[in-house]
Amino acid sequence: MSSLRFVQVEPFTPVILPPGGALQPGPPGRHLGHYPSLPPGYQSMPPGHTAQPYPLKQQPYQQPPGPAGLSPSLAAMSLQSGMPEALRVVNLLQERNLLPPGPLPAPTPCLTQDLQRINCNPEVFRSTLTSIPQTQSLLNKAKMPLGLLLHPFKDLSQLPVVTSSTIVRCRSCRTYINPFVSFLDQRRWKCNLCYRVNDVPEEFMYNPVSRAYGEPHRGRRYRTPPQPAVYLFVLDVSHNALETGYLHVFCQSLLDNLESLPGDSRTKVGFITFDSTIHFYNLQEGLSQPQMLIVSDIEDIFLPTPDSLLVNLNESKELVQDLLKSLPSLFEKTMETQSALGSALQSLPNLGAGALQSREDPNQRANAKDVQHLSPATDFYKKLALDCSGQQVAVDLFLLSAQYCDLASLGNSLIFCFLSGAVYYYPSYHQQHNPAQVERFQKDLKRYITRKIGFEAVMRIRCTKGLSIHTFHGNFFVRSTDLLSLPNVNPDAGFAVQMSIDENLDDTQVVSFQAALLYTSSKGERRIRVHTLCLPVVNSLSDIFAGADVQAMTGLLACMAVDRSITASLSDAREALTNAAIDSLACYRQSVLTIQQPGLLAPACLRLFPLYILALHKQKAFRVGTSTRLDERVSAMLQLKYQPLAYAMLMIHPTLYRVDDLTDEGALNINDRTIPQPRVLQLSVEKLSREGAFLMDAGTVMYLWIGRNCNPSFISQVLGVPSYAAVPENLYLLPELDTAESQRVRAFVGWLKEQRPFAPTLHIIRDESQMKSSFLQSMIEDRTESALSYYEFLLHLQQQISK
C-alpha cells in the first residue's frame, strides 16, 4: 500500500519514508450492501443458458508484461487485448445470478503488478473510475462521474512512525515524494504530478551498497508544542431532556472512560449545562467542590470566570469526577422546559440566540412530490460554525429526542457544512422505554470518547497536471481550491471530491492523486499522513467502462444528491440519480456495444448500478410517499455524506441472511472463533419464510425477524423462550445460551457488528411486531404504493434508453 506515513516533530515539517517502502495494509473492512436479485415477474432464462456465478475475487484486467517502474511500456497497455470480465454483456431483464457469493471487490486498475503492490488501499483512497479518460470530452461522453472517495484517518494496524526534521517535496507543486516518482539518478527525482526535476537531500541520498536512503535520523529536531487537547461538554438539563435519562448514562460513561480520553498531561476539560439559563462550572484545583455559576441573560452571554471554565484534567480530576457524580441529581427535580442551546454555544433551541421553531407538518411527511425545510431556518449556526472553524473548534452533536429538533438547521449549518464533527441521532431515546437505543448510545459514546483523534488538521488533495478538483463533499471548511480545514479529524469520517479534466492527457500514461493530512496527535505531535493513488490513462470508452467502480460511483452520487436536495429540491436529486443510470447505460449501448441486442444491457461491472440507484430512491434520505420524519431524513443525509464508503453502502443496500439453519460449513475461523457465513438473500419478501428466522443488516440497525412457524427448537436454543408466542415485544439482546445454535448466531451477529466503528441497534421482531414495517421498507426489490419494484424500475430505464 502506498499510504506513506509522515511524522512531524517540527511544525509543518514532516519526514519521508524511504521511497518505494511499502506498508502492510490494515485489516480489510467489511464490504457489505451489494446483493441485488430477481423479484417476481422476470423473464425466464433462455433454454440451455446457465448463468455463471461470479468468482470470489474479481479477475484483474489482462496485463501485458512490463517493468516494475513507470516505464514507456505502460503507454502500450490496453484493455482491448482481450475482453475483460468487467465488460461481459449482461441483460438485466433476463440474467438472475447477478450477485457474487462474497463481498464485491474494488476493480483492479490496469497497472503492472509492482505498481499494484504499492498502490493505495481502496479502503483508504478510491476512484469512481480506475481508468482515467484522456480528455474531458471523452469523460462527458461516458456519462459517468469522476471523483475520489477518501477515508484518510482510517484505523490501521502496523502503522510505523518515522521522525525527522527533513522532508522531500517537489519544489514546484509541493507534492510529497512517493513510490510513483521517477529517480533520474542518485541525486535527482522527477515529480509524478507536475514533472519537475528535484534534487534529493543529502540525508536521503540513495546508497547503492547498503540499498538504503540516507540517514534521516541525523537531521536536527525541533519541537514546538501545539495547542493541548481540549474537550468542552455542553449538556441539556431541561425537564424534557432529563426525562429521557440520558444524563445518567453520559456521566457514568465519561466516568468509566475518563482515563482513556485522548490527550497528554496538558489536556483540558470543561462543562456547561443549560435550560432557560446557562450554567458554568468552576473546577479549579484547590476547590473543595465544584462551583456552579449561572448566567440568566442569555441574549448577552459572558464567561463569569474565563480562566476557570477549562481546567487541566490531571490537576482537577477529582473535582471533575465529583461533578459527574452529582450532575444527574442536581437537576432531577427541575420543571424547566426551555432550551437555550444557541446561547450555550455562542431539545429545540426555543429561547435566546439561534432560537428555532417547528417547521414540520406531520400531514406532509408522505408528500409524493417534494419535501420542504431541508435547508437551515437561520444563518445563526452557520456564522457560529465559521467562528468555531477559525478557532480550530469542532462540534459533535448527540441528539436524543422523540420530538422535532430542526436538525436541518443544527446539522446542516453547525456540523454539516463547515466543521469536521458529526451528528449522532437517537430518535425516541428513553432509558426505560427504549433500551436498545440506550445500549447504542452507551457504545457510541465509549467509542467517541476513546477513539484516536487529530486536532488542528488540514488536508490537501493534489493531482497530476491536467486534472483538477471542482467540488468537495463532507464535513469541513474549504480554505482554498484544494485545501480543507478540519478542526479535528477522526478515524470514522469519510470524504468525497469531484474531479474534472482541464487539459488533455494525450502524452500521459498514468496519473496520480495525493491526499496529505496534517494534524496534531492527542499527544501533541504534529504528524502527516500521505496517501497516493496511481491510475492509468485510457483513450477508449470501453476501457473507461471496464474500470468503472460501481460502489464508488454510488457513494459519490449519494453525496451529490444530498447537496442537491438541500440547494435545489429532493425531486431534482431523485431525477438526477435516475438520469445517472439512464445516461451511463445508454452510452454503453450506443457507443461500446459492437453487436446490438434486445433487452436492458449493462457491462458486468455496472450490473448492480440500477439496483443501487433504486436503493437510493428508497433510502430514508431520498424516499417520498412514505411517512418520514424530517429530522430522520436529515440524519440519513448527514450519514451518507459523513460515512466512509463501506459503511454508507450498507445503509444504502442492506444485506439479508437466513440464520435459523446456520452451519459450520464454509465458516471463517478468527481468533479461535468459528463464524458461519450464510449466503446473502435478495431484498424481497419472496425470500422470507414463516418457517425461518432472517437477519437484516442495514448498517445502523439490525432486524432479526422470527417467522410465525419458526422451528421451536431454534427459538428456545437461541432466544431462550419456549415458543414463538413467548418472544418478548421489545427484545434487543441475544441471550448467551450454552447451545451450538446460540453460539453460531451470536458469533455471526457479533462478527457483523465488529466490521464497523459505530454500534448498530438490534431489534428482534415477530411477524406482527410494530417494527415489521421498518423491516419491510428495506425490501428494496419489492413494489410499494409510492415506489417501483426492481423489475419495474429496470423496465422504466429500458423505456427511457429506447426513446
TrEMBL record:
UniProt xrefs under SUPFAM superfamilies: beta-sandwich domain of Sec23/24, C-terminal, gelsolin-like domain of Sec23/24, Helical domain of Sec23/24, vWA-like, Zn-finger domain of Sec23/24
Q: Note down the stretches annotated as region Disordered.
A: 17-70
Record-given protein name = SEC24 homolog A, COPII coat complex component
Name of a matching Pfam family: Sec23_trunk
Q: Mind telling me which PANTHER family this protein's record contains? A: PROTEIN TRANSPORT PROTEIN SEC24A, SEC24-RELATED PROTEIN
Family, as annotated: Belongs to the SEC23/SEC24 family. SEC24 subfamily.
The molecular function terms in GO held by this entry are: SNARE binding; zinc ion binding
Biological process (GO) annotations?
COPII-coated vesicle cargo loading; intracellular protein transport
Stretches of Low complexity bias are at 51-61
Gelsolin-like domain sequence ranges: 675-748
Domain (Sec23/Sec24 helical): residue spans on this chain:
549-649
Main localization (coarse): cytoplasm
